[in-house]
Amino acid sequence: MLSRVADTIYWLARYMERTQAMLQVIRIQYIASQDEPHYWGWQPLLNTYGDLSDKEIAKRAPHTPQVLYHLVFDRENAASAYRNIVQGRENARAVQDHISKEVWQSLNDYYHLIRHDAVAHQTLGEDPVSGLDALIQQGVLYVGTVQNTMPRDEGYIYLKLGKFLERALQTADLLRLNQHLFATENESVAGAPELRYLLYGLLGYELYIKTYQGHLEARSVLELVLYNADFPHSLIYSLGQLLRYCERLKDKSRPESYEHLRFLIGKARTTVAYSTLQDQKGEALEKFLAQVRSELLDITTALSSSFFGNG
Questions:
Q1: Is residue 187 over pLDDT 50?
Q2: Least crowded by CB within 10 Å, which of 85, 152, 194, 204?
Q3: Ranges of H-type helices in the chain
Q4: How far apart are CA 123 and CA 22, in angstroms?
C-alpha cells in the first residue's frame, strides 16, 4: 500500500474515533449540567476541545447553547466535531478505492447529518440530548459498517491502528482532565458525582457496577480505566489492540520499521501493565499519565516517519 494512502486511512480512523469520544463526553457533561446542582462547569471541556482564549472561555462557559455550538457545530473551531467529520469525510473521499462503498456512504451521511439545520436546532435548543444522540448513533453506524463491510486487508489494519491509538489518547486525556478525583482517598471525593459521569463518558458505568457490585470509589474507577482488559476503553485494552494490529504489519513493512513500532507499543503497554494503583497517588498520577501520553505520541511519530513517509 502506498504510504500516502495508509496515512490517509489512519487519519480517517483517528478523526472518527475522536468525534465519537468527544460527542459522548459532551452529551454526558450536558446531562450533568442539567442534573447536578453544583455542576463543575464547561471550562475543562472548552480548554480540551476548543481553541478559545481564557477570556473567551470565561465569557462563553456560563451559556450552554454557546458551548454546544462551539464544541459541536462551529466551523471556525478546528477541534469541533463538525471539523473532525469534515476531515474524516475528505480523507475517505481520497481513498475510496481502499474502503468499502458502504463505509464511504456512512461517512457521507454523517457529514450531511451534522450540516442539517434541524439537528443543530434540536441540539442547541429544544432537546440537546436527542440531537447529540442522533450524531452519536450515526457514528455507531459508521463503526458497525467498518466492522461488517471492510476486507481484513492492509487498509483495515491502518484503520484499527488509528482507532485504538486515538482511543488510548482520548482515555488518557479524559483521566488527566479528571485527575483531581483521584488525588485523595477522602470519602466525599471518592463518592463524587464526577466519577459517575466519567464512567458514563467512557461507556464504562454498566461494567463498573457489575464488576464492583455498585460501590463507587475513586480507586476502583481508576483500576477499571487503566487495567481492565475486558473494558474496550481502558488503556490496557487499547494498547493490546495496537500491539495486535501492529504485529499484522510484520510482513507488510520494512523489518526495522516494524521492530521499532512494535518496541514503542510494547513499551507503552508495559508502562501501563506494570504500574500499580499504589503508584498513582497525588502528583504521581499526573506524571504517569504524562508519560503514557508521551509514549503514545512517540508511536504516532514512528508511524508518521517510518510508515507514512512524513519524517
A1: no
A2: 152
A3: 3-35, 43-49, 54-60, 64-68, 81-94, 101-114, 117-121, 128-149, 154-177, 187-190, 193-201, 205-212, 218-227, 235-247, 255-273, 283-302
A4: 15
Contact criterion met (CB below 8 Å) for 200 and 51: no
Q: What is the DSSP string of 193-225?
A: HHHHHHHHHTT-HHHHHHHHTT---HHHHHHHH
Tell the residue number behind the cell numbers 469520544, with chain if given: 21
- pLDDT > 80? residue 298: yes
SS3 291: helix
First to last CA, the chain: 18
| Helix (H/G/I), strand (E/B), else coil: 186 | coil
Say if residue 88's pLDDT is above 90: yes
User: Among 301, 280, 184, which Cα is nearest to 235's?
Assistant: 280
The residue whose grid cell reads 440537546 is 128
